[in-house]
Amino acid sequence: MQKGHIGVTTENIFPIIKKYLYSDHEIFLRELVSNAVDATQKLKTLSSVGEFKGEIGETPVRVILDEKKKTITISDRGVGMTAEEIDKYINQVAFSGANEFLEKYKKDANAIIGHFGLGFYSSFMVSKKVEIITKSFKEDSQAVKWSCDGSPEYTLEDAKKEDRGTDIVLYIDDENKQYATKAEIDNLLKKYCRFLPVEVVFGKETEWKDGKEVETGNDNVVNETKPLWTRTPSELKDEDYNKFYRDLYPMSEDPLFNIHLNVDYPFNLTGVLYFPKLKNNVEVQKNKIQLYCNQVYVTDSVEGIVPEFLTLLHGVLDSPDIPLNVSRSYLQSDGNVKKISSHITKKVADRLEEIYKKDRENFEAKWDDLKIFVEYGMLTEEKFFDRAKKFSLLKNTEGKCFTFDEYKDIIKGSQTDKNKQLIYLYTTDIQGQHSFIEAAKNKGYDVLVMDGQLDSHFINHLESKFENSSFVRVDGDVVDKLIQKEDEAKLDLTEPQKADLTTIFSSQVPNVDKANFIVTFEALSENDAPVMITQQEFMRRMKEMSAMGGGGMNFYGEMPDSYNLVVNGNHTLVKQVLDAEEKEVGEKVSSTRSKVESLEKKKAELEKAKEGKKEEEIPQADKDELEDLTKKITDLNAKKDEELSKFASKNKVVSQLIDLALLSNNMLKGEALTKFVKRSIDLI
Hints:
The strands form 5 sheets. A 9-stranded mixed beta sheet has the order 1-6-5-4-7-3-2-8-9, with helices on one face. The chain is of the alpha+beta class. Helix content is 42%, strand content 19%. It has 23 helices and 22 strands. The relative contact order is 0.06.
């Protein structure tokens, strides 16, 4: 028997493994099974070049659990090792400069394992003792047994083993006894080993018999050795791709499309990516792409490998150019990873364009599901925007789809304003903004539907890309002002009439939660609505982006919604209100207004006399008179407003016009809606 010390330059490798790798200790099974697969494949390679002339025979990697003894054995029929090879590969651990490296990467276990080639030593994260019983494929080799109890000391002795290959026996320690259970090993094999290229066997298949689960005589093979992405696309059908998707994501609906990647230059990359139905929810869908290295599972956190927007895709990527023990810092700096990211972006764009060109009808039918994905890409990746503008679609209220260029050609004749600006009208709610959409259509305009999760940001982005163009929501103003064709029409109202109507209408607006209303006037035709509600485009858009978490937009999110209560000064019903006001309170209001005007004239004279004088030079009598005039003016205006408010509260037409405007914006609710219904019956 040979005894010795493992050749490490640091005092003791095992406390470091236990301490720094603890958070990732479940990867021990991946490492050991992967090593067994490598040993098996190496034997097949040696056989193919004539260096091994024996019978290969069956070569599954077997994982054997003894729950009583708390041991896990990983057994293969690969190349095996001689005593000299154990000394070289197991006993001499390249661990120079370890302490500095460990301090730097102590939170990233994968980086440590990958840097030092410690795959085998990950077994000590969960074991109090590890044994290797191995026999080389070389003729007349002596089987040997290596044993170590987690200290730098090991023993190496001859052993009895009939067959070539390696058995690694882990004696699981008490802290990690959960790994010595069938359920946990099932779980780890399914996670890390389900697509390994060599059969992995764990126990026997089971079936239900007489109300209980019983073992059959067949090996339970846990992996698919030739997964879909390793096969040639020409031999696969849509059903094959959909079946694989359901295997990966059992609870998901069938995907929209897929992309089969097969790249061998300037790097190696295979995989299948799927466009899922996103359900309009960006965040929930991330981390659905599984990254493999030569069919060994690495991670499902692929943000560093694919661009942000592509993390919405589902599926599998496999590249030997990304190391098995991948680290965040590696992903951020590696040139190959950047090339892969750029290439996948191009492939995705090319595939979407191909589907669009080949079967536009099908592409349009799936556009509502694809839209959020495409917009996310166009917002975050400049190169993707340049590619996607050929197939990205705009959809109107009729449900028709257009490319950017097609739509521009359709609307430039009717929707170019007097300043040569092209105006894209859009709605965020076809039902809620129906009356505004109809008004726009009656003018011969077309209206886009922009009701998606990212559309408020996307509209801003398109405005920065489209020359001499702007997007205006269809309820952002009265229809004649949405696209101004000529100078404004004349408003048939005097300033006193506008002032009176402002008080009349503003006094009767019901309380709407978190909303302010400003009365404005427009010179519209008699065919337009007498009163309508619009919302200023800029403020509304800022609030929408704030609600989505737009950077620096929180200020807007706290502000109440601001609406314009637009009064059509040329409408018969508005003139009726003015006539009724004149008849009922006109004399009182005019008298009060005359007194206010007289007092304001005196006030203006006193304020003019103050000009150029210091405060102490102004006589106290003048100051007192000015203060008295200000109070009288305020009181008289309040009296005038009270008269107008009393009139307005009794005039059912005023309330009816306001409520009709609120109703068309889906803003009339609760008690106000009940009053409206009752008043409507009374008026009828």
